[in-house]
């Protein structure tokens, strides 16, 4: 440090709350072309360990011996320090001025809710710096009069709990202490009734949010409306250049909630943190307005889970280092996370294997989210669970069955590795889907949109007698640019627009729309009837031989 009274760096505030936008100002009449404003949290970081930076020449009015820029700052459970770094001809940095910004103590953040799979219940989850008697207060009254209080349990993880690098390396751009994750279970809720709630502690509590309690599974429910997508990411700096679509989709989803929405399905590739802990803080903040109001139900993708080391720390219990068949393109895409951050941040219905696979009923729809990142073949733990779950569906109560995984069964996009995985998924699962009448299958992984006809074993069939397959990997991460091969079952493809899938189901039909963002245009739409009974015999392809069911 070599402080210089003629050099200044400061902000328009010395205190922030999570997600606040801050204006940062510097002054220096002798500014160098490579001087920079660096951002640190906590303030004790070494000079090289900044979270983000901006060259002074990239700021507004820098030619006039001063400059300004804005930055969104997140409460990462430690205060911030701004530093003016003078960079000499040898690329050595000297601190010329500093400015501290404080964050609230134990601020409750990242609120989200999830159904449990049991009527009359809702889970409320959030994060904070400490475990200081966390609780939820909820009431039928908007001012929380007569509120009931429910204690929460807390979990966390350390760098040693993660499977490999980047995730387990302590560094501002890799592992940072995530604080604690709190979960409260609300019971005795009346179906379709709005509840108001806050989460936190007696000393630090959230603003009041609200949700509609889930209806009981019942074919007499008028309409069930939900959203589905994969592959979102964050739109905040740093490293936001390829996720700007996430801003448009997030704002569109907030409008969907205002217009009336039952729940959201996010089937993998959630934050794209891949071992960068601060991105989880950004993503959870990004989604709070939405996820505090409607159940936000997630599954894992390759960028949350896939790993090649540290398998004994994998919370899914998969053998060795996870699923790596010789024909697959499964690698180390999770950046060493192996599902640990996802597992702690999102508590799912307990009828499967945590966040990795589970199911729930909501109104007219039975949803089953399973993992394409785990072994899905017949005879495996996941397959046997999936078959048992599908067999248990009561179609008189939930006439619709929607299945999701991160990777698709059907794709015509020119990506050979994903074609091969899809072919193996079809061999393992398509007959099961036909036998138990899965109406709709949603996936992502490919950063694009594609919809099939109602299809069985590669053949288009009459609506209501097969499964409709949709890829919705268009929720924010960069869009793909590959061409599409021609297949008769592929009815619509688009890799030019960001968007999400909107489903509206009544007791006899489901309307399915792909909505672009920010344009808010419906570019693809189809309506399918319920699946009454199987009347045809199909040939399902199984490895090198065929057999007839």
Describe the structure.
The protein is mainly beta and about 550 residues long. Helices cover about 15% and strands about 30% of the residues. It contains 7 helices and 31 strands. Strands 19, 20, 21, 22, 23, 24, 25 and 26 form an 8-stranded mixed sheet that branches. It has a 6-stranded mixed sheet with strand order 18-17-16-27-28-29. A 4-stranded antiparallel sheet has the order 4-3-6-7, with no helix packed on it. A hairpin with a 4-residue loop joins strand 28 and strand 29. The chain is globular, with a radius of gyration of 25 Å. Mean pLDDT is about 95; it is low at about 545-549.
Mean pLDDT score: 94
**Sheet bearing the most strands, described?**
8 strands, mixed
Based on secondary structure, the structural category is mainly beta
Q: How many runs of DSSP E, i.e. beta strands?
A: 31
Low-pLDDT runs of 5+ residues are 543-549
Helix content: 10-25%
> Total number of helical segments?
7
What's the overall geometry? globular
Taking the alpha carbons of the first and last residues, their distance comes to: 76 Å
Q: How large a portion of the residues is in β-strands, by DSSP E?
A: 25-35%
Radius of gyration equals: 25 Å
Short characterization:
The chain has 549 residues and is mainly beta. Helix content is 13%, strand content 32%. It has 7 helices and 31 strands.
